Protein backbone atom coordinates (compact mmCIF):
# COMPACT_ATOMS: atom_id res chain seq x y z
CA UNK A 1 0.00 0.00 0.00
CA UNK A 2 1.35 3.39 -0.96
CA UNK A 3 1.14 6.03 1.69
CA UNK A 4 0.37 9.23 -0.17
CA UNK A 5 1.10 11.58 2.69
CA UNK A 6 1.41 11.72 6.45
CA UNK A 7 -0.19 14.18 8.83
CA UNK A 8 -0.09 14.43 12.60
CA UNK A 9 -2.96 12.81 14.46
CA UNK A 10 -4.04 16.22 15.74
CA UNK A 11 -4.29 17.59 12.17
CA UNK A 12 -6.25 14.59 10.94
CA UNK A 13 -8.62 14.76 13.92
CA UNK A 14 -9.29 18.48 13.48
CA UNK A 15 -9.81 18.22 9.72
CA UNK A 16 -12.13 15.27 10.22
CA UNK A 17 -14.20 17.24 12.72
CA UNK A 18 -14.59 20.24 10.38
CA UNK A 19 -15.60 18.10 7.39
CA UNK A 20 -18.04 16.07 9.49
CA UNK A 21 -19.79 19.17 10.86
CA UNK A 22 -20.10 20.69 7.37
CA UNK A 23 -21.59 17.57 5.78
CA UNK A 24 -23.90 16.77 8.69
CA UNK A 25 -25.27 20.30 8.54
CA UNK A 26 -25.96 19.96 4.82
CA UNK A 27 -27.42 16.49 5.33
CA UNK A 28 -30.21 17.80 7.58
CA UNK A 29 -31.20 20.67 5.32
CA UNK A 30 -31.01 18.69 2.08
CA UNK A 31 -32.77 15.60 3.48
CA UNK A 32 -35.72 17.71 4.62
CA UNK A 33 -35.83 19.49 1.25
CA UNK A 34 -35.76 16.10 -0.49
CA UNK A 35 -38.91 15.04 1.37
CA UNK A 36 -40.93 17.30 -0.94
CA UNK A 37 -39.11 16.52 -4.19
CA UNK A 38 -40.83 13.23 -5.09
CA UNK A 39 -38.74 10.35 -3.76
CA UNK A 40 -40.01 8.27 -0.85
CA UNK A 41 -37.83 7.71 2.25
CA UNK A 42 -36.72 4.22 1.24
CA UNK A 43 -36.03 5.48 -2.30
CA UNK A 44 -33.58 7.99 -0.84
CA UNK A 45 -32.06 5.27 1.34
CA UNK A 46 -31.60 3.13 -1.80
CA UNK A 47 -29.90 5.99 -3.64
CA UNK A 48 -27.65 6.57 -0.61
CA UNK A 49 -26.57 2.93 -0.44
CA UNK A 50 -26.02 2.60 -4.21
CA UNK A 51 -24.03 5.83 -4.36
CA UNK A 52 -21.78 4.77 -1.51
CA UNK A 53 -21.44 1.24 -2.88
CA UNK A 54 -20.29 2.51 -6.27
CA UNK A 55 -17.23 3.99 -4.56
CA UNK A 56 -16.58 1.76 -1.58
CA UNK A 57 -17.17 -1.76 -2.86
CA UNK A 58 -14.57 -1.55 -5.70
CA UNK A 59 -12.24 0.17 -3.24
CA UNK A 60 -12.71 -2.66 -0.74
CA UNK A 61 -11.98 -5.25 -3.44
CA UNK A 62 -8.75 -3.42 -4.35
CA UNK A 63 -7.81 -3.04 -0.68
CA UNK A 64 -8.06 -6.78 -0.03
CA UNK A 65 -6.47 -7.83 -3.33
CA UNK A 66 -2.88 -8.26 -1.99
CA UNK A 67 -4.10 -10.51 0.83
CA UNK A 68 -6.18 -12.61 -1.59
CA UNK A 69 -3.21 -12.96 -3.94
CA UNK A 70 -1.17 -14.16 -0.98
CA UNK A 71 -3.75 -16.87 -0.34
CA UNK A 72 -5.11 -15.32 2.84
CA UNK A 73 -8.77 -15.49 3.83
CA UNK A 74 -9.86 -11.90 4.44
CA UNK A 75 -13.10 -10.03 4.90
CA UNK A 76 -16.66 -11.29 4.83
CA UNK A 77 -19.90 -11.06 2.81
CA UNK A 78 -18.30 -12.73 -0.18
CA UNK A 79 -15.33 -10.38 -0.14
CA UNK A 80 -17.37 -7.17 -0.15
CA UNK A 81 -16.53 -6.27 3.45
CA UNK A 82 -12.91 -5.99 4.59
CA UNK A 83 -13.90 -6.75 8.21
CA UNK A 84 -14.84 -10.08 9.81
CA UNK A 85 -18.52 -10.98 9.79
CA UNK A 86 -19.36 -10.14 13.42
CA UNK A 87 -18.24 -6.47 13.43
CA UNK A 88 -19.54 -6.06 9.88
CA UNK A 89 -23.05 -7.12 10.87
CA UNK A 90 -23.06 -5.18 14.13
CA UNK A 91 -21.70 -1.92 12.72
CA UNK A 92 -23.54 -2.29 9.42
CA UNK A 93 -26.94 -2.87 10.99
CA UNK A 94 -26.60 0.17 13.26
CA UNK A 95 -24.65 2.69 11.20
CA UNK A 96 -25.29 1.54 7.66
CA UNK A 97 -28.93 0.45 7.59
CA UNK A 98 -31.04 1.47 10.59
CA UNK A 99 -29.71 5.02 10.83
CA UNK A 100 -30.52 5.82 7.21
CA UNK A 101 -33.98 4.23 7.19
CA UNK A 102 -35.02 5.91 10.45
CA UNK A 103 -33.61 9.34 9.63
CA UNK A 104 -35.07 9.62 6.11
CA UNK A 105 -38.49 8.55 7.35
CA UNK A 106 -38.27 11.16 10.09
CA UNK A 107 -37.85 14.00 7.60
CA UNK A 108 -41.24 13.15 6.09
CA UNK A 109 -42.97 13.90 9.41
CA UNK A 110 -40.94 16.59 11.19
CA UNK A 111 -39.14 19.77 10.06
CA UNK A 112 -35.38 20.12 9.75
CA UNK A 113 -35.21 22.32 12.86
CA UNK A 114 -36.47 19.38 14.94
CA UNK A 115 -33.86 17.12 13.38
CA UNK A 116 -31.21 19.73 14.20
CA UNK A 117 -31.98 19.43 17.90
CA UNK A 118 -32.92 15.77 18.20
CA UNK A 119 -30.32 14.03 16.00
CA UNK A 120 -26.89 15.64 16.49
CA UNK A 121 -28.15 17.27 19.69
CA UNK A 122 -29.02 14.00 21.44
CA UNK A 123 -25.93 12.11 20.27
CA UNK A 124 -23.87 12.99 23.37
CA UNK A 125 -26.66 11.70 25.60
CA UNK A 126 -26.98 8.35 23.85
CA UNK A 127 -23.23 7.95 23.39
CA UNK A 128 -22.49 8.67 27.05
CA UNK A 129 -25.06 6.12 28.19
CA UNK A 130 -23.81 3.46 25.79
CA UNK A 131 -20.14 4.17 26.52
CA UNK A 132 -20.94 3.82 30.23
CA UNK A 133 -22.77 0.53 29.68
CA UNK A 134 -20.48 -1.05 27.08
CA UNK A 135 -17.05 0.55 27.58
CA UNK A 136 -17.45 1.24 31.30
CA UNK A 137 -16.42 4.86 30.81
CA UNK A 138 -17.00 7.06 33.83
CA UNK A 139 -19.40 10.00 33.63
CA UNK A 140 -18.08 13.05 35.47
CA UNK A 141 -20.40 15.38 37.33
CA UNK A 142 -19.59 18.19 34.89
CA UNK A 143 -20.51 16.04 31.92
CA UNK A 144 -23.70 14.98 33.66
CA UNK A 145 -24.69 18.64 33.99
CA UNK A 146 -24.13 19.15 30.25
CA UNK A 147 -26.22 16.10 29.47
CA UNK A 148 -28.95 17.47 31.70
CA UNK A 149 -29.13 20.56 29.50
CA UNK A 150 -29.42 18.31 26.45
CA UNK A 151 -32.27 16.34 27.97
CA UNK A 152 -34.15 19.54 28.80
CA UNK A 153 -33.66 20.80 25.26
CA UNK A 154 -34.91 17.54 23.77
CA UNK A 155 -37.96 17.60 26.04
CA UNK A 156 -38.81 21.16 24.99
CA UNK A 157 -38.76 20.18 21.31
CA UNK A 158 -40.12 16.64 21.42
CA UNK A 159 -42.56 17.29 24.25
CA UNK A 160 -44.37 20.01 22.32
CA UNK A 161 -44.74 17.67 19.33
CA UNK A 162 -46.03 14.90 21.56
CA UNK A 163 -48.74 17.18 22.96
CA UNK A 164 -49.84 18.01 19.41
CA UNK A 165 -50.37 14.29 18.78
CA UNK A 166 -53.63 14.52 20.72
CA UNK A 167 -54.85 16.98 18.08
CA UNK A 168 -53.93 14.65 15.23
CA UNK A 169 -50.42 15.98 14.63
CA UNK A 170 -47.73 13.67 13.23
CA UNK A 171 -44.59 15.68 13.96
CA UNK A 172 -43.98 13.54 17.05
CA UNK A 173 -43.45 10.54 14.78
CA UNK A 174 -40.56 12.31 13.09
CA UNK A 175 -39.16 13.38 16.45
CA UNK A 176 -39.24 9.78 17.69
CA UNK A 177 -37.56 8.57 14.50
CA UNK A 178 -34.84 11.24 14.85
CA UNK A 179 -34.13 10.25 18.44
CA UNK A 180 -33.97 6.56 17.52
CA UNK A 181 -31.67 7.29 14.58
CA UNK A 182 -29.35 9.22 16.89
CA UNK A 183 -29.29 6.27 19.27
CA UNK A 184 -28.33 3.94 16.41
CA UNK A 185 -25.48 6.22 15.33
CA UNK A 186 -24.26 6.50 18.91
CA UNK A 187 -24.26 2.71 19.15
CA UNK A 188 -22.26 2.57 15.92
CA UNK A 189 -19.67 5.05 17.27
CA UNK A 190 -19.26 2.99 20.45
CA UNK A 191 -18.90 -0.16 18.32
CA UNK A 192 -16.10 1.54 16.39
CA UNK A 193 -14.27 2.33 19.61
CA UNK A 194 -14.91 -1.08 21.18
CA UNK A 195 -13.50 -3.03 18.23
CA UNK A 196 -10.85 -0.44 17.33
CA UNK A 197 -12.16 -0.33 13.76
CA UNK A 198 -10.22 1.45 11.06
CA UNK A 199 -12.06 4.42 9.54
CA UNK A 200 -11.97 3.31 5.91
CA UNK A 201 -12.63 -0.35 6.57
CA UNK A 202 -15.51 0.43 8.92
CA UNK A 203 -17.22 2.61 6.32
CA UNK A 204 -16.70 -0.04 3.66
CA UNK A 205 -18.14 -2.70 5.96
CA UNK A 206 -21.34 -0.85 6.85
CA UNK A 207 -21.92 -0.04 3.18
CA UNK A 208 -21.35 -3.65 2.14
CA UNK A 209 -23.82 -4.85 4.77
CA UNK A 210 -26.48 -2.36 3.63
CA UNK A 211 -25.87 -3.28 -0.03
CA UNK A 212 -26.21 -7.02 0.59
CA UNK A 213 -29.23 -6.82 2.91
CA UNK A 214 -31.26 -3.78 1.87
CA UNK A 215 -30.85 -3.42 -1.90
CA UNK A 216 -32.05 -6.89 -3.05
CA UNK A 217 -34.87 -7.00 -0.50
CA UNK A 218 -36.17 -3.52 -1.34
CA UNK A 219 -35.95 -4.02 -5.10
CA UNK A 220 -37.62 -7.41 -4.75
CA UNK A 221 -40.51 -5.98 -2.72
CA UNK A 222 -40.91 -3.17 -5.25
CA UNK A 223 -40.96 -5.67 -8.09
CA UNK A 224 -43.69 -7.69 -6.36
CA UNK A 225 -45.73 -4.55 -5.74
CA UNK A 226 -45.51 -4.90 -1.95
CA UNK A 227 -43.87 -1.51 -1.37
CA UNK A 228 -44.55 1.76 -3.20
CA UNK A 229 -41.79 3.69 -4.95
CA UNK A 230 -41.37 6.95 -6.84
CA UNK A 231 -38.12 5.98 -8.55
CA UNK A 232 -39.83 5.95 -11.95
CA UNK A 233 -41.71 9.22 -11.35
CA UNK A 234 -38.81 11.63 -10.75
CA UNK A 235 -36.13 12.94 -13.13
CA UNK A 236 -33.00 10.82 -13.27
CA UNK A 237 -31.00 13.84 -12.17
CA UNK A 238 -32.77 13.76 -8.78
CA UNK A 239 -31.72 10.14 -8.25
CA UNK A 240 -28.14 10.90 -9.27
CA UNK A 241 -28.02 13.91 -6.95
CA UNK A 242 -29.22 11.83 -4.01
CA UNK A 243 -26.72 9.09 -4.81
CA UNK A 244 -23.86 11.60 -4.96
CA UNK A 245 -24.70 13.69 -1.90
CA UNK A 246 -26.35 11.11 0.34
CA UNK A 247 -24.03 8.28 -0.74
CA UNK A 248 -20.64 9.73 -1.60
CA UNK A 249 -20.90 12.77 0.67
CA UNK A 250 -22.85 11.61 3.72
CA UNK A 251 -21.54 8.03 3.74
CA UNK A 252 -18.12 7.88 2.10
CA UNK A 253 -16.66 11.22 3.12
CA UNK A 254 -18.39 11.97 6.42
CA UNK A 255 -18.41 8.31 7.40
CA UNK A 256 -14.63 8.16 7.19
CA UNK A 257 -14.09 11.55 8.83
CA UNK A 258 -16.48 10.75 11.68
CA UNK A 259 -14.76 7.43 12.35
CA UNK A 260 -11.37 9.15 12.32
CA UNK A 261 -12.74 11.67 14.77
CA UNK A 262 -13.94 8.86 17.05
CA UNK A 263 -10.50 7.26 16.94
CA UNK A 264 -8.79 10.54 17.82
CA UNK A 265 -11.14 12.07 20.41
CA UNK A 266 -13.14 9.06 21.64
CA UNK A 267 -16.89 8.49 21.07
CA UNK A 268 -18.25 10.88 23.69
CA UNK A 269 -16.04 13.86 22.94
CA UNK A 270 -16.43 13.30 19.19
CA UNK A 271 -20.19 13.64 19.35
CA UNK A 272 -19.82 16.73 21.52
CA UNK A 273 -17.57 18.36 18.93
CA UNK A 274 -20.61 18.43 16.64
CA UNK A 275 -22.00 21.28 18.78
CA UNK A 276 -22.12 23.53 15.73
CA UNK A 277 -24.41 21.22 13.77
CA UNK A 278 -27.71 21.94 15.58
CA UNK A 279 -27.35 25.71 15.30
CA UNK A 280 -26.06 25.76 11.73
CA UNK A 281 -28.66 23.33 10.42
CA UNK A 282 -31.49 25.11 12.25
CA UNK A 283 -30.41 28.41 10.71
CA UNK A 284 -30.14 26.68 7.33
CA UNK A 285 -33.71 25.38 7.70
CA UNK A 286 -34.96 28.90 8.36
CA UNK A 287 -32.88 30.50 5.60
CA UNK A 288 -33.19 27.93 2.81
CA UNK A 289 -36.46 26.14 3.62
CA UNK A 290 -38.42 28.98 5.18
CA UNK A 291 -39.22 27.01 8.33
CA UNK A 292 -40.53 28.98 11.34
CA UNK A 293 -38.45 29.13 14.50
CA UNK A 294 -40.79 28.90 17.50
CA UNK A 295 -39.76 29.78 21.04
CA UNK A 296 -39.53 26.16 22.16
CA UNK A 297 -37.20 25.35 19.27
CA UNK A 298 -34.99 28.32 20.11
CA UNK A 299 -34.93 27.39 23.78
CA UNK A 300 -34.31 23.72 23.01
CA UNK A 301 -31.53 24.60 20.57
CA UNK A 302 -29.88 26.88 23.13
CA UNK A 303 -30.05 24.23 25.85
CA UNK A 304 -28.73 21.44 23.63
CA UNK A 305 -25.89 23.54 22.23
CA UNK A 306 -24.96 24.76 25.70
CA UNK A 307 -24.94 21.21 27.00
CA UNK A 308 -22.69 20.02 24.18
CA UNK A 309 -20.28 22.94 24.55
CA UNK A 310 -20.15 22.40 28.30
CA UNK A 311 -19.28 18.77 27.74
CA UNK A 312 -16.55 19.64 25.24
CA UNK A 313 -14.87 21.95 27.74
CA UNK A 314 -14.97 19.32 30.46
CA UNK A 315 -14.07 16.28 28.35
CA UNK A 316 -10.55 14.91 28.56
CA UNK A 317 -8.79 14.19 25.26
CA UNK A 318 -8.35 10.58 24.31
CA UNK A 319 -4.91 9.03 24.09
CA UNK A 320 -3.88 8.84 20.45
CA UNK A 321 -0.94 7.69 18.39
CA UNK A 322 1.54 10.32 17.19
CA UNK A 323 0.87 10.07 13.46
CA UNK A 324 -1.70 8.65 11.09
CA UNK A 325 -1.21 7.73 7.47
CA UNK A 326 -3.74 9.13 5.04
CA UNK A 327 -4.28 8.23 1.43
CA UNK A 328 -3.22 4.61 1.37
CA UNK A 329 -3.11 2.79 4.68
CA UNK A 330 -6.53 1.74 5.93
Verbal overview:
The protein has helices spanning 9-34, 41-69, 85-106, 112-118, 123-134, 141-164, 171-195, 199-223, 236-265, 267-273, 276-289, 295-314, and strands spanning 5-8, 323-326. The protein is mainly alpha-helical and 330 residues long. Strands 1-2 form a two-stranded antiparallel sheet. Helix 5 packs across helix 7 (171-195) and helix 8 (199-223) runs antiparallel to helix 9 (236-265). It has one domain.
Short description:
This protein has 330 residues and is mostly helical. It contains twelve helices and two strands, in the order E-H-H-H-H-H-H-H-H-H-H-H-H-E. The model is unreliable at 317-330 (pLDDT under 50).
Helix/strand/pairing category: mainly alpha
Distance between the termini: 9 Å
Helix content: over 70%
Listing every helix as H and every strand as E from the N terminus to the C terminus, the arrangement reads EHHHHHHHHHHHHE
Q: Detail the poorly predicted runs.
A: 317-330
Number of helices: 12
| Rg computed from alpha carbons, rounded to a whole number of angstroms | 20 Å
In total, the number of strands is 2
Main beta-sheet strand count, sense and barrel state: 2 strands, antiparallel
Query: Strands of the biggest beta sheet: in what spatial order?
Result: 1-2
Q: What coarse outline follows from CA principal-axis ratios? A: globular
Amino acid sequence: MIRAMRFSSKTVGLASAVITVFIWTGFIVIARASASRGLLPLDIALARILGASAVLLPWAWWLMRPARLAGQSVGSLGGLSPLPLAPTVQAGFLGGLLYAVLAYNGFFFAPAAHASVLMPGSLPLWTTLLAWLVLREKVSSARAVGLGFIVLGDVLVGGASLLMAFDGGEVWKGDLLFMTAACCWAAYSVTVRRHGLDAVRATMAITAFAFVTFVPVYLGLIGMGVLPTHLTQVPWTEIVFQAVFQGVGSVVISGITFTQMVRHYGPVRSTMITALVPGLSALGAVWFLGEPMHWNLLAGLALVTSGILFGVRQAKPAVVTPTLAVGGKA
